[in-house]
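Figure 6 in text form: structure in, sequence out.
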């Protein structure tokens, strides 16, 4: 068994078991035929695409699935929202311009500029219809967020879950919006019409108000737990209506969820007075999610435009 065969089998292992048993040999033959005269880089790229599609099938993020369709429709809004916040952060955050006096500060500054810069450039790529570049830049944003959270957690005195959730208030939207772009199937992403460009610009212009609301002591900072829970659960359940083909409802829900989840998670955890106290609220939310999933499956997966597929 040569190295190429092992790599192909590894990629095929990412596919759902039934699909792999039915189509695995065919996929392996097609891969061998298409890469017979190709160079090493082309083979690696084809192998990556082969495994990536299997992972999409396993996670339900293909262009014909509700999740993949929802991510593709939300991608312009996500790109614009994260770019608007990033632009404000680069303009207003004085910490981003301090001279590094240690290795940790230097790494934090690097994460700060990669996080924000790649987010702005990603939106620019979306406006030009360069979705591959936009998704690569979104990946850079996601990696920078993870690095920044780890650096902040390591630098904290107490550390632990509280510190992670506190920092997630600021970095969380960047990570979650970037994941929306990465989750969107390439063949389902919209072409850059004026409508899509308008969505990007509108989201970029409106999202900075979110930064202002979290930077000052606004009245909503003192919201009671039920209101905070609603700010998380309502967009989540809206996003899940994609299982019924209700994309008009689901898209704004998913677009809002990265911010509402990030800014409320820490406060919810503190207000309940212990993780175990979240169980009743989590149980109700999970029950509603399961109901939507079961209804969606019973009626069949939704196709583009909300049509039910046979």
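Output sequence:
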């Amino acid at each position: 068994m040569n190295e190429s065969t092992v790599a192909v089998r590894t990629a095929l292992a990412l596919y759902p078991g039934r699909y792999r048993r039915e189509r695995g040999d065919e996929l392996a033959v097609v891969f061998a035929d298409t890469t017979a005269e190709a160079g090493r880089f082309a083979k690696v790229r084809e192998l990556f695409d082969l495994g990536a599609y299997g992972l999409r099938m396993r996670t339900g993020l293909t262009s014909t699935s509700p999740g993949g369709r929802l991510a593709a429709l939300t991608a312009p809004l996500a790109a614009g929202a994260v770019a608007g916040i990033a632009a404000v952060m680069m303009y207003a955050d004085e910490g981003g311009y301090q001279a590094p006096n240690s290795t940790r500060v230097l790494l934090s500054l690097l994460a700060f500029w990669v996080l924000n810069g790649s987010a702005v450039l990603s939106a620019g790529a979306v406006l030009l219809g360069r979705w591959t570049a936009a998704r690569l830049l979104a990946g850079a944003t996601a990696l920078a967020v993870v690095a920044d959270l780890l650096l902040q957690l390591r630098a904290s005195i107490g550390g632990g879950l509280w510190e992670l959730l506190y920092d997630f208030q600021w970095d969380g939207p960047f990570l979650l919006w970037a994941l929306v772009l990465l989750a969107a199937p390439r063949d389902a992403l919209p072409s850059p019409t004026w409508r899509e460009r308008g969505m990007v610009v509108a989201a970029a212009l409106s999202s900075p108000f979110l930064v202002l609301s979290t930077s000052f002591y606004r009245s909503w900072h003192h919201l009671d737990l039920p209101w905070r829970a609603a700010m998380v659960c309502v967009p989540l359940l809206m996003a899940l209506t994609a299982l019924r083909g209700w994309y008009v409802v689901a898209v704004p829900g998913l677009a809002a969820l990265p911010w509402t989840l990030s800014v409320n998670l820490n406060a919810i955890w503190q207000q309940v007075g212990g993780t175990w106290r979240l169980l009743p609220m989590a149980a109700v939310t999970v029950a509603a999610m399961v109901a939507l999933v079961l209804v969606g499956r019973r009626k069949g997966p939704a196709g583009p435009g909300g049509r039910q597929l046979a």
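Caption detail: The mean pLDDT is 79.
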